[in-house]
């Protein structure tokens, strides 16, 4: 039974792969042609164009701050409402919230590990002034 479903899934995956390989390039070219005004390779890159794009990005981000803060506070109010009515909270909602919290914690830990230079135990101690100013040892300076 499971083998039959696996064969059907494999067959559909092969069919989808053939469809994409046959029609994918046509769709890709059509998509690029329809959106060529957004592609930067049309004209040579210049400092002026770079400055214009950075300004557009900056002011677009600045213009979106109000909407993002409103969205943030709506979400905070929603969480406050859920907390006030936690007796009515469904198991699925609680599980989703717990998984989201766990996800945030895992990404925090991953960031800490990367920030420590991929160590789990702690940060590397900084070198002292004496350690940085010592001349390198040569064979003659090593006592036998």
TrEMBL record:
Query: Which molecular-function annotation in GO is an example for this chain?
Result: proton transmembrane transporter activity
- Tell me which GO cellular component terms the UniProt record holds: mitochondrial membrane; proton-transporting ATP synthase complex
Q: Which residues form the signal peptide?
A: none
Compartmental location: Mitochondrion membrane
List, alphabetically, the InterPro entries matched: ATP_synth_F0_gsu_mt
Q: Which domain of life is it from?
A: Eukaryota
Entry keyword annotation includes Methyltransferase = no
Q: Which GO terms describe its biological process?
A: proton motive force-driven ATP synthesis
Keywords assigned by UniProt, alphabetized:
ATP synthesis, CF(0), Hydrogen ion transport, Ion transport, Membrane, Mitochondrion, Transport
The UniProt entry's sequence similarity note says: Belongs to the ATPase g subunit family.
Query: Which protein is depicted?
Result: Mitochondrial ATP synthase subunit G protein
């Amino acid at each position: 039974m499971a083998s039959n479903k696996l064969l059907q899934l494999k067959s559909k995956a092969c069919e989808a792969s053939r469809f994409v390989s046959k029609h994918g390039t046509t769709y890709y070219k059509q998509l690029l042609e329809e959106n060529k005004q957004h592609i930067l390779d049309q004209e040579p890159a210049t400092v002026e164009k770079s400055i214009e794009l950075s300004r557009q990005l900056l002011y677009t981000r600045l213009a979106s701050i109000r909407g993002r803060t409103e969205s943030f506070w709506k979400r905070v109010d929603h969480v406050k409402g859920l907390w006030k009515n936690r007796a009515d909270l469904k198991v699925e909602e609680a599980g989703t919230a717990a998984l989201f919290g766990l996800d945030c914690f895992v990404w925090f830990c991953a960031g800490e590990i990367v920030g420590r230079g991929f160590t789990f135990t702690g940060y590397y101690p900084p070198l002292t002034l004496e350690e940085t100013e010592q001349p390198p040892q040569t064979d003659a300076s090593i006592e036998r």
